[in-house]
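DM from R.C. (forwarded with permission)

"hey, sorry to bug you on a friday — could you get me a structure for this? deadline for the figure draft is monday and I only need the backbone to look sensible"
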Amino acid sequence: QVQLVESGGGLVQAGGSLRLSCAVSGRTFSAYGMGWFRHAPGKEREFVAGINWTGGSTYYADSVKGRFTISRDNAKNTVYLQMNSLKPEDTAVYYCATDKAPGGAGTAPYYWGQGTQVTVSS
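My reply, with the result:
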């Protein structure tokens, strides 16, 4: 079965940086889009960033554009989210996900990881 495991979350000060990783197993990784989502208390889960199978197309929520960068290493079956200039409003549980169908860019998630907590203090 498909399994996704996030890592790299933690507590940082505003203006700091974190890099999240998501390791995928159970399927051919390179053919599928990957995405990052986050869920903050009192809010619905929202899309953060997505990337297609080659890494040539990326998509970002307006709230993180210019601060976050999504990338992937198909040889390692891993997708990353580099988060810079973090703000307290970035505090959330961050989830990685992958599409069920190949050829997408992580915007139609089907398989989900368990999430990793990111907390940004003032």
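R.C.: lifesaver. Residues 14 and 87 are 5 Å apart (CA to CA).
me: no worries. DSSP finds no helices and eleven strands in the chain.
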